[in-house]
Amino acid sequence: MSNSYEVDDQFDDKPKNTKLVGRRLIKVIGEQRMRITLILLAALGYSILTIIAPMISSQIIDSLYQMIKEPLLQGGVGTVMRFAGSGLVLILIVYMLTSLFSLVQERLMASVSENVTLSLKKKVIVKLNRSPLAYFDQNQTGELLSRVSNDMERISEALQMSTIQLLTSVFTVIGSVVMMARMSVLLTAIALFFILVSMLITKVVAAKNLKYASARQQKQGILNSEIEEKYTGRVIIKSFNRENESSMEVFKANQALYTANFKADFMTHAVNPLIRFTNRIGYVLIAVLSGMLFLQGQITIGNIQAFIQYVNQLTEPLAQASFGINSLQSALASAERIFDIMDSPDEVKDADSTIGLPDIRGDLQFSHVAFGYSETLLMEDINLDIDAGKMVAIVGPTGAGKTTLVNILMRFYELKGGRILIDGVDITALKRHELRQKFGMVLQDTWLFEGTIAENIAYGKPDASMEEIVEAAKQAKADYFIRTLPHGYNSVLSNDGTSLSAGQKQLLTIARAMLSDPPILILDEATSSVDTRTELAIQEAMNALMKNRTSLVIAHRLSTIRNADKILVMNHGTIIEQGNHHELMEAEGFYHRLYNSQFAK
Asked: SS3 for 379?
């Protein structure tokens, strides 16, 4: 947990194809053509008025200078207003319209940036819903959360702050250069030289900033993962007195993010003063030369003022544009991380077949099934027949493949070979949602969402009546403790139901499965978190629930599955024994040793 926190100059995690990422982001932005068109028009109007303003002020200054030369000031303020009043009113109107166009741009761009991030979030959510479980197994939760939240926010900020600067800068720079060239080609050439130097500085700094921006987002994801991991494991951390070590790991991740943030922010903001300094040198040189040209009668004092204002208008947008470019570089780094999610493989597409199983018996058949989480196969040539209505227990040591057998049956993972059939129909010929509707699952790891107890029980059957919910709770032996809560079935669970004991949470998930009334049941260590007395009561309810239903029961406590119709003994991904309890005990094989080990003194 140390090397990944370090950020150094060798870090090269930057967009693999900046142009491709940029085009994809522009495509998303282009979904709002009307707003973009209005923003462009407002930016054009703002730039035109910005370019006109120096010429108006130039005429006012030349008029005043002419008055000084021909002593016309004797008329006082009235004379001044006659010569310059109309120009002052005009320039006031120009500045007011400029502010209006600027306000329109900012308002519309804020709307565009929020809509872009909303559109991206919707697409990412849809994508994550289509992603296979393997994708979530291979990526840390905190990392994915960082992409959906922090990276989205960075794109929004960059679009809102930087896009307007770039748009107005382009129009203003082009117009200013044209007006400057009309006044003096020599002074324009000097100004453009210093502008080229500024652009070179921007390019160098932008390349560095892109690297540091990518590093910052990577470290943000690592920190989020650390925080999420430490929060969810807070009970275990306290139990083993690992608070200091845990805090140090988060501190290291936070320190790495600080370093990455410092470098990225420094490069983002350093470019502005560098360019300003370069431009000020050119500004001084132009002021001196323009003064000499004035003395030679080649340029008016009003034009000098206008030219210097154009130079300022030229350099200021470039400084803003350089800052905007660096911000957009950060946005591109974030956009690529989001597009990486969107480009990840989808679940294998459902078959186009219209085959459905409205009513099933529950016959299951595994035919030459092969499966592996990677290229290495965990299961090879699994053959198994399970008759409808039978209870089948799956036992074996940790890592034997018990849960994997259920995962491939539910199509959480796709087979590498062979077929699985329900009532003679290949599961790949069914829609996933149709297939999973036939199963009810109670897992060892409980999951409860923020909502009332009644809503949690009715999760698999949202239209269930309160009477049905209560009956399911009674069957799961959960009704008693629910009624002891202050608000009973309307008690709100929050934070994954941490106010309940592990056993109580398990009872709620069992009630949830009972209410859904599925034709096939999967119980993965469903009673592992309850006491012996409660376990016996649940087993009684389970026996009633499993009657005339196909049931797959994964168990470590072998005493709970002695009455199973068939017991599958797995080891290293293979079914090594099968039969009922008495048959397997008489065989004195692996199951015999496993069973006796649980009762040995």
From this structure: strand
Secondary structure class of 151 (helix, strand, coil): helix
Cβ atoms < 10 Å from Cβ of 313: 22
> Domain 364-597 carries which CATH code?
3.40.50.300
Pick from 268, 270, 269, 271: nearest CA to 333: 268
In the block, residue with structure tokens 């069992």: 510
Report whether 63 contacts 87 (CB < 8 A). yes
Summary mean pLDDT of the chain? 80
Gap between the Cα atoms of 437 and 452, Å rounded: 23
Query: Above 70 in pLDDT, residue 528?
Result: no
Which pair of structure tokens corresponds to residue 201? Answer: 């500085």
Buried-state track 519-557, b at ≥16 Cβ within 10 A, e below 16: bbbbbbbbbbbbeeebbebbbebbeebbeebbbbbbbbe
For CATH 1.20.1560.10, the residue range(s) in the chain are 17-343
Average pLDDT of 478-483? Answer: 88
Number of H-type helices and E-type strands within the chain:
19, 12
Q: Which CATH architecture has domain 17-343?
A: Up-down Bundle (1.20)
In this structure, are residues 391 and 553 in contact, taking their beta carbons and an 8 Å threshold? Answer: yes
Q: How far is CA 232 from CA 43, 340, 536, 554, in A?
A: 49, 26, 31, 25
Q: Where in the chain is the domain with CATH 3.40.50.300?
A: 364-597
Cβ neighbours of residue 130 closer than 8 Å, sequence gap 6 or more: 346, 347
Report the range of poorest mean pLDDT among 60-74, 251-265, 403-417: 60-74
Kindly report the pTM of this predicted structure.
0.64
Q: What is the DSSP string of 264-276?
A: HHHHHHHHHHHHH
Rounded CA-CA distance 365/382 in Å is 10
Bridge partners for 331 per DSSP: none
